[in-house]
Each structure stands twice: as structure tokens, then as C-alpha cells.
Design a protein that fits this description.
45% of the residues lie in helices and 10% in strands. It is built from 19 helices and twelve strands. The structure holds glutamic acid.
């Protein structure tokens, strides 16, 4: 017998928000399918119309594509198992629910809101989880017929066994045993005729021939109910892979409100998308060795569901930063220029300016693109800075020596005919040799005079080249004036 082709799915609800935990589920589903030469599908679970957000489906498709998680079947590309949007499959679920009624595995429930609220309140007082009391489980066929004819609103509920235990295996969490008595007669078809997520996922996973279900561990608790549905239909249960939540810290959820939970949040923060994907792969999965940097094809090769950890994963932004820096370093200069340009423009309006040069200086020292403006804001104008900045023990610089050497540098820089880095370099080092001083004694004050900072992308020579001769001379003159008036008034 041919082994079954592996088919996995990512089944998000169109809430307009791609939590990194969801993206990780998509990634693992993609990796599992691709490693096995299988099929990865995108299915939109939009049966909860109240949660629907305009444009959210396009957004999901776009994020999957831009991160390289290309699906083989999905709402915008079709496939043999469509439609891939649950609201477009509405009729189909009712038919299956009716089959369950016929076989005694589901029933009509006509309880109204008030009655259900009362049951919930009783459960709350008794300090037990809300659970339907089975009121409509045993209505006679005549009673049901009458209520349907009277057009009484109804839902269809799953008829769960009330005694005994159920056992299932999960690839990550192992064997799980649950008492049927703990399980609710969950709603399968709502009063609006739409299925609940809890019903639709089972029908669709079966009809779409999904072999492996990867989803968040919050669904573990409902899994025995889904399994009962598979059994009632006589269907094979797919392999279950529940993944632990992604947390900010132990016991602390990542927060949508604080803007550090979704893929978009991290893109806005300036992290590279490839670094985000690489990082979330490592959230709860490890390759079994110390490797940390993986391209997507390398992840496909290395991925193994047996190496998924069941402990909650902690999102370590410092680690993501580090990885993002590594990815920035791997870019070609052209790619980096393209990505950094919008951020460079945020801080720099001076023209003409050598953007390639700025990028070259930034690329080796950057972790995220949003750090760019603060690193180069001095190009337009020198920020306020204290004169103490000229004092630097290791560089053997003091405000007094700074004043002296800036003054000696002026005529030397002025005399340069042209303004290449090489020429600036030669002139400055000739002066250092001539004065018999340490390099830092001249280069430190020169850099401070041009930037007002103690650390900049590139040193004096690169910055002077970027700013041009005129601006360089002007800034040195400004610095000399400040040092003369503020450190040695009256001298
Ligand atoms: N639609 C569910 C959600 O967005 C996904 C559950 C599943 O993967 O089965 O949370």
C-alpha cells in the first residue's frame, strides 16, 4: 500500500491579527508538509462572523507569501478540495450534522438564551466549568417535530457519552486521558445555521484529507470531542501535534495592546522577516544541536516534530535582535540599501549625500532597521552635546587638548584639494605623525565635533567624507568656538 501523502493545513480565523504563535503554527505545518514532499494548505475559518475583520484574508495570504510559506491550495489559488473559506462551505456542515442526529450522536436543542444563562450561573455558583445540562437530549421525535414546525430557533449539539473515559495520543503531549463526564455537549450548528469552529474543523480536516493537524495547545481540551465526531462518522483521526503557547515571560501573555505580539508588530519594529521566521522556528522546537541560523529550506531539512518541546516557549526579543543583525549582515549591499532607504530618509534630508556609503557604515552594526534614524541623525545637524564629551581617558583627550588639535586640523583639512576618504586619511595621519600624538587625541575630538556623539557608524574620516568639506570645516569651527567660550572663558 502506498503511504498516504502528507497534507497539513494552516487554519486561521480572519481576525486581522497574525499572532507570532499563529505564524509559528503555519510555519511548522509548512515545514512538516514540505519535508515529506507533501501538501500545505491554507483554510480560512470564518464561521464566527462577529470576529470577521475586513481585508483580513488578504492580509493572511500576503504574510504567508512574503515569509515564503507558500501554500499549495488556498482561497486565492484554489485546489481540488475547495472552497477554502468555511463560510462558502456552509450548506455542507448542516448535512453532516443531520447525519449525526440520525445516528444518535447529536440532537436539536431549543433552549433559549435565558435558560442557558441560568445554567451558566448555576455552574458558576457551584464553581464548575459551564456545561449544558442535557435538557434537550431526550426530546421525543414528536416534540422535536412540533418545535421545528413552530419555527423555534435551535442549535444542534453533540451528544457526548456521560460516563467512561477517552484516551488519545498527541505527538507532543503524549497520551491524554479524559473523563467523558467533564465534556460538554458542545454546539455543532449555531442558531444562525453556521457551524461552530469546533464542528467545521473536523468536517474540513476530513474532507480535505488532512493527515497531520498542528495547532495551539489550547485546543487539546476540545480534542476528545473532535475525536468523538471522527468516531461517530467512522473516520480516521489525523495525527495530532499540539504546540505550546508562546509567552512573553512565564505566565505572561504576549500583548496585542502593547504591540508586541503580532508579525506586523515585529516588522514595524524593524526586524527582518527572514529573521522573524528563523526565530519563531526556534520557539519550542530545537534542531537537536546548537545551530541557530537557518534559511527556510534548511529548516525544511532539519524539522522534526519529535523535537517540539511541550513547555511554553518564551519570546526573547534580545535573541530576535541578535538574529536580525546576523540576517542584516548577510544581505548584499544593494538589498540593504533598498531596505534601509526609507529609514535613512526619515533622518537625513541633506543633499547631496552618499546613500551607499551611509548603508555601508550602518550594515555591520545594525540589529533592526528602526535603529537607523537615531544612529545617523547627526548628518543633518549636530545634536546638543555636553563639552565633557571631549574628555576621554583612553583616547587621552581633554577639552583643552581637543581645542588645540582641532585648531591644528583646520588648516590641514582646508588644504585638501578634493575630498576623498583617502585624501582625508592621508592628511589626518600626516598631522598625527607630525604632532607626535596618539591617533585618538585627534580623531576623537574630530568625530565629536562632527557628530556630537561618542559612537557613530564609521569614524571621523567616513563622516567627514559624507558631510563634505564645507560642512566639515564649519562644524570644526563651531566646535572650536564653543570650546573657547565655554571651557576657557576669557582666555
Ligand atoms: N481557527 C483556529 C484559530 O484561528 C485554528 C484552529 C486550528 O488550527 O484548528 O485559532
Amino acid at each position: 500500500m502506498n503511504p498516504k501523502k502528507i497534507r497539513t493545513r494552516f487554519a486561521p480565523s480572519p481576525t486581522g491579527f497574525m499572532h507570532v504563535g499563529n505564524l509559528r503554527t503555519a510555519l511548522y505545518s509548512y515545514l512538516l508538509a514540505k519535508k515529506a514532499g507533501g501538501v500545505f494548505i491554507l483554510r480560512i475559518e470564518d464561521t464566527d462572523q462577529a470576529r470577521y475583520v475586513e481585508g483580513a484574508i488578504d492580509k493572511i495570504c500576503q504574510i504567508l507569501k512574503e515569509t515564503g510559506l507558500h501554500y499549495d491550495e488556498g482561497p486565492d489559488i484554489g485546489g481540488d478540495y475547495g472552497p477554502y473559506i468555511q463560510s462558502q462551505r456552509k450548506e455542507l456542515y448542516l448535512e453532516y450534522a443531520q447525519k449525526l442526529i440520525e445516528t444518535g450522536n447529536a440532537y436539536y436543542c431549543f433552549c433559549d438564551k435565558e435558560r442557558l444563562a441560568k445554567i451558566r450561573e448555576q455552574c458558576r455558583i457551584a464553581k464548575i466549568d459551564p456545561k449544558y445540562d442535557g435538557h434537550c437530549r431526550n426530546l421525543s421525535p414528536e416534540e422535536i417535530q412540533k418545535k421545528l414546525e413552530d419555527k423555534k430557533p435551535f442549535v444542534i449539539r453533540q451528544k457526548m457519552p456521560t460516563t467512561g473515559i477517552t484516551i488519545f495520543d498527541d505527538q507532543v503531549f503524549g497520551t491524554i486521558q479524559v473523563d467523558f463526564s467533564q465534556l460538554d455537549d458542545q454546539v455543532l450548528i449555531k442558531a444562525d445555521g453556521l457551524p461552530t469552529y469546533n464542528f467545521a474543523n473536523v468536517i474540513d480536516d476530513h474532507l480535505m484529507e488532512i493527515t497531520h493537524i498542528i495547532r495551539g495547545s489550547e485546543f487539546l481540551i476540545s480534542t476528545p470531542k473532535y475525536n468523538q465526531l471522527y468516531k461517530a462518522f467512522g473516520w480516521e483521526i489525523p495525527t495530532l501535534v499540539h504546540v505550546p503557547p508562546v509567552m512573553k515571560a512565564a505566565g505572561q501573555k504576549m500583548s496585542k495592546r502593547l504591540g508586541d505580539a503580532s508579525y506586523d508588530d515585529f516588522i514595524k519594529k524593524g526586524y527582518l522577516k527572514d529573521a522573524i521566521i528563523n526565530y519563531i522556528a526556534l520557539l519550542g522546537w530545537s534542531p537537536g544541536d546548537n545551530r541557530e541560523i537557518f534559511t527556510l529550506p534548511e529548516l525544511v531539512n532539519a524539522f522534526d516534530i519529535n523535537n517540539i518541546n511541550k513547555a511554553p516557549a518564551i519570546f526573547d526579543e534580545a535573541k530576535l535582535s541578535w538574529l536580525s543583525g546576523e540576517y542584516i549582515r548577510k544581505l548584499s549591499l544593494e538589498e540593504f540599501v533598498q531596505m534601509s532607504l526609507p529609514y535613512i530618509k526619515q533622518a537625513v534630508s541633506r543633499v547631496p549625500i552618499d546613500i551607499q556609503k551611509i548603508s555601508q557604515l550602518l550594515q555591520p552594526r545594525l540589529e533592526k532597521l528602526t535603529d537607523i534614524p537615531a544612529q545617523i541623525n547627526f548628518i543633518d545637524s549636530v545634536p546638543d552635546y555636553p563639552l565633557d564629551l571631549y574628555a576621554h581617558q583612553k583616547m587621552k583627550s581633554t577639552p583643552e587638548s581637543a581645542l588645540r588639535f582641532l585648531k591644528s586640523a583646520l588648516p590641514v583639512l582646508n588644504a585638501i584639494d578634493g575630498w576623498s576618504e583617502k585624501q582625508i586619511h592621508t592628511a589626518v595621519f600626516e598631522l598625527i605623525n607630525h604632532l607626535k600624538i596618539k591617533t585618538g587625541q585627534l580623531l576623537w575630538p574630530l568625530r565629536v565635533a562632527l557628530s556630537g556623539k561618542q559612537s557613530t557608524p564609521g569614524g571621523f574620516i567616513e563622516i567627514a567624507y559624507l558631510l563634505g568639506k564645507e560642512e566639515t570645516i564649519k562644524r570644526i569651527n563651531d566646535a572650536i568656538r564653543r570650546l573657547e567660550t565655554e571651557t576657557m572663558p576669557g582666555v
